[in-house]
Sequence to fold (105 residues):
Amino acid sequence: MTPADELRTAVEKLRTLAERVNDDLSLVDDPNDPNDPNGPLEAHWTQASRNELGPIWGAYAAAMHPGVGLAIADWMEETARNAEPFGKINARAVAVARAINGTNP
Fold:
C-alpha cells in the first residue's frame, strides 16, 4: 500500500465515522436553528461527550467533534491527490492516517 493509499483508507474510515456520529445526534430538532430549545449541535455534542466520558475525556472528544474529523479527512484527501503527480507526500499527513488506520510504516 502506498502512502497515498494509506491516506485514502483513513479518509474513508474517518468520513464514515464522522457521518455516523452526525446521524446519531438525533436529539437536535434543527441543528442550524439558534432558537432550537435544545440548543445548537455543538452544545449537544459537548454535553453528550462529557456525560458519557467524564470531564477530561469528554472535553477532548467534544473538541474533536465530527466537523473536525471531516476537515482532517478533507486535508488528507487533498494531500493524497496533490502528492501523486510529484511522488512526494506530507509525512505528517501519513502519520495521522496511520494513527487512524492503526497501522505502522
User: Anything to note?
Assistant: Residues 3-101 form one domain.
